[in-house]
Specification:
Strand 6 and strand 7 (81-85) form a beta hairpin. The chain is mainly beta. The strands form five sheets. Strands 2, 3, 4, 6, 7 and 8 form a six-stranded antiparallel β-sheet that branches. Helices cover 8% and strands 39% of the residues. It has helices at 258-275, 289-292; strands spanning 2-3, 11-20, 25-26, 36-42, 50-51, 67-75, 81-85, 94-96, 99-106, 120-129, 136-145, 161-167, 173-181, 190-199, 202-207, 216-218, 223-227, 234-238.
């Protein structure tokens, strides 16, 4: 803060108040208390002008997407206000807090169900607010294993990551990234996409919520074990849950032989009536040679 024309040798108090430009109200901390800081300084006898540096350390959680303006009030030794700077539109006194929302999905299924393959493509859309127009940013992404909390490793043992540089054409917008990897060995893994955004090598925001459903994709394990009812022999069964089968790109067909069962029942009744023979349909062998000949 620069000052000029103050009384030499006098002590002043500079009060800094953080204002939310959107609401026009004082920014509050997590306890609902207005955020303000006071700095005391003494004017030199040989120089009535100068600058005062005011360190501001706050918990910025909850300010994502907000624009904050610094207001200053100057008081003399008697507590009387002798100056103020309270321009809500002063860009030199303004800082912005970016905000990010993200959503991940499989590029093939268009859902959060990932098909096990050697060429998996997970699309990650980053929606941002309050970036500086015209500035170049770097967004990096990492797929995390929800169970272990560690980075997902592809079939070659490498972390699944992606990155993209972009220039913000508007303060609010979106960026699309693509995770491309071989994930045959990842069947049954629940993956969550984490992102970081930086400018000039400085991280300005991150989205790293392991429980965020919008950032979660699932690679189902579809191999199950079953036993033959008669022999007890183990066999492999492959299946998808019915509600998502079409989303995986497969066609679900139901074949119901209800009419055929009615015809068989009528045939058995006719045989009984005309020949007096009771036929047990369940005991007719399915490999009867004369039938196939």
């Amino acid at each position: 803060v620069s000052y000029d024309g103050l009384n030499s040798g006098k002590t002043y108090t500079l009060k800094t108040v953080l204002m939310d430009r959107t609401t026009g109200t004082v920014v509050q901390d997590k306890n609902g208390k207005d955020i303000s800081l006071e700095t005391t300084f003494k004017v030199h006898f040989w120089n009535r002008s100068g600058t005062v540096e005011v360190p501001v350390v706050i918990d910025a959680r909850g300010l994502e997407g907000h624009t904050v303006v610094f207001f200053e009030y100057l008081y003399d030794e008697d507590g009387k206000e002798v100056g103020r700077h309270t321009d809500i539109d002063d860009e030199d006194q303004t800082i912005v807090f970016p905000k990010a929302e993200t959503e991940a999905s499989d590029e093939v299924t268009k859902t959060n169900i990932v098909l096990t393959a050697e060429d998996i493509r997970v699309k990650d859309i980053l929606k941002y607010e309050n970036l500086l127009v015209g500035k170049e940013y770097l967004v990096t992404g990492t797929l995390m294993d929800k169970k272990t909390g560690e980075a997902v490793l592809d079939d070659n043992g490498q972390p699944v990551t992606t990155s993209k540089r972009f220039t913000a054409e508007k303060k609010d917008g979106e960026v699309e990234m693509l995770f491309e990897f071989s994930g045959v060995k990842l069947a049954g893994t629940v993956m969550v996409a984490f992102e970081k955004v930086s400018i000039s090598g400085v991280e300005i925001m991150a989205h790293a919520d392991i429980d965020d459903e919008d950032q979660t994709v699932y690679e189902p394990s579809i191999r199950t074990s079953a036993s033959d009812k008669e022999t007890g022999e183990k066999m492999l069964v492959t299946q998808y849950e019915g509600s998502v089968i079409e989303e995986t790109g497969l066609i679900k067909m139901d074949f119901l032989g209800l009419k055929t069962l009615s015809v068989i029942n009528e045939a058995l009744a006719n045989i009984k009536q005309s020949l007096g023979i009771d036929v047990d349909i369940d005991k007719i062998p399915i490999d009867d040679k004369p039938t196939y000949d």
